Each structure stands twice: as structure tokens, then as C-alpha cells.
Amino acid sequence: MKKRFVVAVESSTSEQSAALVEFFEERGVGWWHYLPNLWLISDSNGKLDASEIRDELRLLIPGEHSLVLEFRADGDTWAGFGPKSERRNMFKWIRGNWTPEE
User: Fold this and answer.
1) Domain limits at 22?
2) Helices 50-60 and 14-26, interaxial angle, to 10°?
3) Could you tell me the CATH number of the domain that includes residue 77?
4) Which terminus of the chain has fewer Cβ atoms in its 10 Å neighbourhood, N or C?
């Protein structure tokens, strides 16, 4: 099943971006990257998932906040790394407004 992803990172060097592109190319997925720190990914084989990409981001671009949105025919999901305290929560709006109601 084909999966599509939107991948965003807070900041990255050109070397880190190149390493992320290499990660995608090694997995045989298509990618678009014309805006800084934003990638659109198309996985025709449906093998990647949001948490695998998030975990790779944490290795390749350590310490930077990131968000991966995964779009699939059987339902969308997401994974991210960033602040989630009561005072400063990167994911509160996403949980309340983006995730479909169950």
C-alpha cells in the first residue's frame, strides 16, 4: 500500500539534509525537497512508517525538533520530536485539531 509523508525539521545543515536524502534513496522512495527543512516523500512499497523516519531524523539531525505526517489509505498518523510540556507543547494543536476523531 502506497504511503505519503510530509517531513519537517526545525533546522539542518546541508550535510544533514544530504544524509536524510541518502536514507530515502536507500529505501527506494521518491522525494521532493524544494523548501528548506521540508520533504515530501512517496513510498510506493508502503514499507516506511512515521516513527521510523522520526527515529532516523533524531540520529541524523540530533537535538532538532521534527514532525512526520504519514498519509495512508487506511488512515493517517504522525510522529514527532519536540517539547511536550504543559507550558510548551509542540503537539497539542495537532492532537486536538489534525488527528481525525475516532
Assistant:
1) 3-98
2) 140
3) 3.30.70.240
4) C
Contact 8, 82 (CB under 8 A): no
pLDDT per residue as tens digits for the range 18-44: 999 999 999 999 998 888 899 999 898
Cell of 1: 500500500
Q: What are the beta bridge partners of residue 41?
A: 5, 31
Distance of alpha carbon 7 from alpha carbon 60, whole angstroms: 13
Q: In sequence order, which residues have a C-beta less than 8 Å from that of residue 61 and are 6 or more positions away?
A: 9, 11, 12, 16, 20
- What average pLDDT does the segment 2-21 reach? 93
- Counting the structural domains of the chain, the total is 1
Q: What are phi and psi of 50, to 5 degrees?
A: -60, -45
